[in-house]
Specification:
Layout lengths: L2 H19 L13 E3 L4 E5 L5 H12 L25 E3 L5 H9 L4 E6 L2 H12 L12 H12 L5 H4 L13 H4 L7 H13 L23 H4 L4 E3 L7 H9 L21 H7 L1 H10 L1 H7 L9 H7 L1
Parallel strand pairs: 2-4, 4-5
Antiparallel strand pairs: 1-2, 1-3
Helix pairs in contact: 1-5, 8-12, 11-12
Length: 313
């Protein structure tokens, strides 16, 4: 291929990536924040990489007389306020504070926040969004991968800061020049980049797929506000009483041909291999998500709810 041809191909590639950057990363921006399904008096929140696609497909089918989500292109099922959901959802965060408080305190409002083990979620996010291997069962989509990788790398600290060693189990320096132009990330690179972002208090700026869960469904409303029994790990969702109660409000059950969501997750798939190949990286990632795990744990000590703290202020 001639130099001019290579330059033309490269130019078209850059233009394509820039165009994709305008919309690909935003495709799931409307999940991870409480949404109110007014006709059924429900407040729902499911974070990206927490089985959101499978759950919303089930919910759409339950809400539309058994009709499955028929669309393959934007706006996607995660975009809850698009016309394809027929105005059934309202964003809780756009309501007045008094209205939000009233909804969360109303015993007639059924609430569900879906969570996921943070370590499993971070590994799953890497596999589907950043992994360099393409075309395999757990390979990332090449087009969105380039854009999302660039988004992540833009959160790296200044060059002078990134050259300092990252505190933790990886006793090495992140090579800024080598990493900043990567179109994808290997697992050890991914963990190092996350560590640098967390170290410099930028985790709240991460793309929703990598953002800690305390900055998503629990950003304003605590676990106690949701009610611990209404905060459900995705792996326990299919047999949980809250999901059965939601099905009842839609007049469906597992005997109506709807069933409960068969959530696709990557729990355990390849994790043991990662621990063998990158033991220090997995250990560092485990340390990074400890705070997130405590924030979403329903077994943690009781914490006053947001509304109670406001009353006592």
């Amino acid at each position: 291929m001639r130099r001019s041809q290579r330059a033309s191909v490269y130019t078209h590639w850059v233009v394509a990536v820039l165009c994709l950057s305008l919309w690909l990363p935003r495709s799931s921006a409307q999940v991870g924040s409480p949404a109110y399904f007014q006709s059924k008096n429900l407040i729902l929140c499911v974070c990206p990489k927490c089985g959101s696609t499978s759950f919303l497909e089930w919910l759409y089918k339950a809400a539309h007389n058994g009709t499955a989500w028929p669309y393959k292109h934007q706006p996607y099922i995660h975009q809850l306020y698009s016309p394809r959901w027929h105005g059934q959802f309202s964003p809780v965060r756009q309501m007045s504070d008094s209205r939000q408080t009233a909804l969360f305190n109303d015993p007639g409002v059924l609430k569900l926040a879906i969570t996921r083990n943070p370590l499993q979620r971070m590994i799953s996010a890497w596999r589907s969004k950043l992994k360099c291997e393409v075309g395999s069962e757990h390979g990332a989509d090449i087009l969105s991968r380039v854009v999302i990788t660039k988004q992540l790398l833009r959160l790296l600290p200044d060059k002078g800061l990134i050259r300092s060693q990252i505190p933790g189990l990886l006793n090495r320096t992140l090579d800024y020049e080598r990493t900043v132009d990567r179109p994808c990330l290997y697992f050890n690179e991914y963990v190092e980049v996350l560590a640098a972002i967390h170290q410099h208090s930028r985790a709240h700026l991460l793309n929703e797929h990598f953002k800690p869960q305390q900055y998503l469904c629990f950003k304003k409303w605590s676990l106690q506000d949701w009610g611990p029994s209404n905060v459900v790990d995705v792996n326990e969702l299919a047999n949980h009483t809250v999901l059965a109660a939601i099905a009842t409000r839609f007049g469906v059950s597992s005997h109506d041909g709807f069933g409960f969501p068969k959530v696709h997750t990557t729990n355990g798939v390849g994790t043991d291999t990662l621990k063998t190949v990158f033991p220090e990286s997995v250990a560092l990632l485990e340390s990074l998500v400890q705070g997130e795990q405590r924030a979403i744990s329903t077994e943690s000590a009781a914490v006053p709810s947001t509304s109670e703290m406001r009353k006592n202020a």
